[in-house]
UniProtKB/TrEMBL annotation:
Residues making up the signal peptide according to the UniProt record: none
Domain GGDEF residue range list: 331-464
Pfam families assigned to the protein according to its UniProt record, in alphabetical order: EAL, GGDEF, PAS, Response_reg
Record InterPro entries: Biofilm_reg_signaling (IPR052155), CheY-like_superfamily (IPR011006), EAL_dom (IPR001633), EAL_sf (IPR035919), GGDEF_dom (IPR000160), Nucleotide_cyclase (IPR029787), PAS (IPR000014), PAS-like_dom_sf (IPR035965)
Protein's name in the database: EAL domain-containing protein
4-aspartylphosphate found at: 73
Keyword annotations: Phosphoprotein
Domain EAL, residue spans: 473-727
Species of the source: Massilia suwonensis
Domain (PAS): residue spans on this chain: 157-228
């Protein structure tokens, strides 16, 4: 069933199948015979019929019910037909009217038609004429209802389309063939600040950024259709008023021309038998936020997040451009490699947060020393690189390097902590020191390590001789790795003497390398490379096993349980399984923990004091004693002697060598002896080479000594021979003697 509405009233449906509502007709006539005849004529025609024999009865029906058609006699006894029609018009009764009258005057017909009658039939009318008129009236009513419905549907569709278009997050627009706006949705105002009225009829160029007009010409005059149309063309459009404060917006324009069977952007031209272009349809999407996000991502890909400096990728790009320019202009440029001295100490003692703050402050100071056009970058960690283009001579690079060192000499304030650092700077000059990016960086790096080797806090220009040294270091590292595999390392022992009895009461273990071509190398010639290249851990693992095997031999051969000092690398102590390895080796070889003393330096205390305390306490619980070496030569703090489980203090050889007069006054020596005595610590003097030194130390209370005056470091077989030569002796009651020192002692 289809339903229609006329003038806001529900119109009756025309039957289109079973169950459809029949057209309702009201038959009005005061002649009973005529009314009955009319009813009989229409009864079987598919209509719902109602009759009225007077005007009042007709009005009553019209007031209660709705009718599609009224067949109305003008002459009624109470209320005339014209008055009934007036009533219908006043009440907006939406029924069509066919007037039937026996009057011959024209005025009656004119009056009926003026009041909206569909037709006027003069009595007597023919049967066919009546049926045809009724059918035509109902058909016209059906068509009118259909038109109203279609108009409403079209209006609703237009509203929905307008709503969808105006609610779109994109700008939707159409242009005529001249490039002038013929339509634009509300989004244009929301994004750009231009109203629809301001844009309609205007040329698209009023919105386009001046630099993008050439590309816009192809986009906004697009004539192609389907896949050939413009896709994803990025343009910058102008914003007006407050909108422009955020900068130019960027749009991704998806433009298409509609073919003839769509929305008619082309119309057929019958004269030339082809489609005529009349405009362009486009959608512009705001991608400003996406572009900004891409810029941020791109920036972060080429910059260091911590310091906001160019990273190594961007630095290499700029260095490459600088090299090309220098080659074209036949000029020189400098590449600097900067490594901060003592930065790791700051990081370990104050933490990584303060270390990051220090790097940020360093970056600011270094930037302040540069010229316009120079590039400072962070390579990573505490390393920075710099390119200085268009040098007048090498002295320009030297001046800037001096500025760097001077700026870093001033103390840094890290939330109340005053920190001092320096830098080692290597410099390579193009083209003399290399013509490629990698060559210049590598040679600057080599020059920087040369400064490190010479004591840090300075700068050096690259020289070819440095490359030979660098190659030697690489060769040494490779050979050292092979030495572990081929069992070329060996432990030597320097006896510790009780100066009163002359007996050996302990020994310090010192590493040697039986190099296949260079002969016997001391620890100082190879262990620094091991520390730099991650070899200290496997070397220390080997050393623990070697020492336990050697101790087992000398205990069996000499019958004397002489204490052993083990030099401990900070890197090895930092490793979590150090204690387990030590305990496992002692158990495996049957060595008493009381025969072992581990020697540490103050540097271990500073690196990670709490962790070091935990590790050393474990050793003490096992029965191993602890000695502190180099006391007074580093960052000394008496609090370390209270916090750490220290049993022995060693007097460094740098203090011992100052003793020249047996009657002299050496306050540092006396202070260390006094501290050891006050804390009830065992005392050992290193580097004793003269009788004067031995007599002075003995006279002031230090009786355990080691040094060339007594013995040089000797091999295991020689050490066992020395032990056999002296009368059997037991360990002193104190249980002290052996040490396991840190890197400096390892290199003795």
């Amino acid at each position: 069933m289809n339903e229609y509405r006329v003038n806001g009233d529900p119109a009756l449906s025309i039957a289109h199948g079973e169950g459809a509502q029949l057209p309702r007709l009201l038959l009005v006539d005061d002649e009973p015979r005529l009314l009955a005849s009319l009813y009989e004529l229409l009864r079987d025609r598919g209509y719902d019929l109602t009759t009225a024999s007077s005007g009042s009865e007709a009005i009553a029906h019209l007031s209660r019910s709705r009718f599609d058609l009224v067949l109305l006699d003008l002459r009624l006894p109470d209320i005339g037909g014209h008055e009934i029609m007036d009533f219908m018009n006043e009440r907006a009764v939406g029924s069509d009217v066919i007037v039937m009258s026996g009057e011959v005057g024209i005025d009656a017909a004119i009056g009926a038609l003026k009041r909206g009658a569909y037709d006027y039939l003069r009595k007597p009318y023919s049967r066919e004429e009546l049926l045809k008129t009724v059918g035509n009236a109902l058909e016209q009513r059906r068509l009118a209802s259909s038109n109203v419905l279609m108009a409403q549907q079209l209006e609703n569709s237009e509203k929905m389309y307008r709503y969808l278009v105006d609610s779109s997050p994109d700008i939707i627009y159409t242009l005529n063939h001249e490039g002038r706006f013929t339509f634009v949705n509300d989004r244009a105002y929301q994004l750009l600040g231009f109203s629809r009225d301001e844009l309609i009829g205007k040329h698209y160029s009023i919105l386009v950024h001046d630099e993008d007009l050439e590309r816009a010409r192809y986009v906004f005059n697009e004539r192609r259709v389907d896949e050939r149309a413009s896709r994803n063309v990025e343009l910058r459009l102008k914003c007006r008023g407050a909108k422009s404060n955020s900068g130019d917006r960027t749009f991704n324009n998806t433009l298409m021309t509609i073919s003839l069977n769509s929305i008619g952007m082309h119309v057929p031209d019958s004269e030339v038998q082809k489609l005529e272009f009349f405009g362009t349809y486009g959608v512009a999407r705001d991608i400003t936020d996406r572009k900004r996000a891409e810029e941020v991502i791109s920036y972060q890909a080429y910059h260091d997040i911590l310091t906001d400096l160019p990273n190594r990728i961007l630095f290499k790009d700029r260095l490459g451009l600088a090299v090309i320019q220098a080659k074209r202009k036949l000029t020189e440029l400098a590449v600097m490699f900067i490594d901060l001295d003592r930065f790791k100490l700051v990081n370990d003692t104050l933490g990584h947060v303060k270390g990051d703050e220090l790097l940020q402050q360093v970056a600011v100071r270094l930037k302040d020393c540069l010229r316009k056009g120079d590039t400072l970058a962070r390579q990573g960690g505490d390393e920075f690189t710099i390119v200085l283009p268009e040098l007048r001579d090498r002295d320009d690079a030297r001046i800037i390097a001096d500025k760097f060192l001077e700026s870093l000499h001033r103390p840094f304030d890290l939330d109340g902590h005053e920190v001092h650092i320096s830098a080692s700077i290597g410099i390579a000059i193009y083209p003399g020191d290399g013509e490629s990016i990698d060559e210049l960086l590598r040679h600057a790096d080599i020059a920087m390590y040369q400064v490190k080797a010479l004591g840090k806090n300075g700068h050096s220009f690259y020289h070819d001789s440095m490359l030979d040294v660098s190659h030697q270091k690489i060769a040494l590292e490779q050979a050292l790795r092979r030495a572990l595999e081929h069992n070329e390392l060996e432990m030597y022992y320097q006896p510790q003497i009780d100066s009163t009895s002359g007996r050996i009461v302990g020994a310090e273990a010192l590493m040697r390398w039986n190099h296949p071509t260079r002969g016997l190398l001391s620890a100082g010639e190879f262990l620094p490379f091991a520390e730099e290249n991650g070899l200290m851990l496997p070397i220390s693992d080997w050393m623990i096993g070697a020492l336990c095997r050697d101790m087992l031999q000398w205990n069996l051969a000499s019958g004397q349980a002489v204490r052993l000092s083990l030099n401990l690398s900070p890197q090895y102590l930092d490793r979590g399984d150090f204690f387990e390895k030590m305990r496992g080796a002692l158990v495996r070889y049957g060595i008493s923990p009381g025969q072992i003393e581990v020697e540490i330096t103050e540097n271990i205390c500073i690196r990670n004091p709490q962790y070091a305390i935990e590790q050393l306490n474990k050793l003490c619980q096992l029965g191993v004693s602890v000695a502190i070496d180099d006391f007074g030569t580093g960052y000394s703090s008496l609090s370390y002697l209270h916090r750490f489980p220290i049993h022995t203090m060693k007097i460094d050889q740098s203090f011992v060598k100052e003793i020249h007069d047996p009657d002299g006054h050496y306050p540092v020596i006396l202070a260390i002896i006094s501290i050891a005595r006050g804390l009830n610590l065992h005392l050992v003097a290193e580097g004793v080479e003269t009788e004067t030194q031995a007599n002075y130390l003995r006279a002031n209370g230090c009786e355990t000594m080691q040094g060339y005056l007594f013995h040089r470091p000797i091999s295991l077989s020689s050490f066992i021979g020395v032990l056999r030569a002296q009368a059997p002796a037991t360990l002193p009651a104190s249980g002290h003697g052996a040490v396991f020192p840190a890197p400096r002692a390892l290199r003795a």
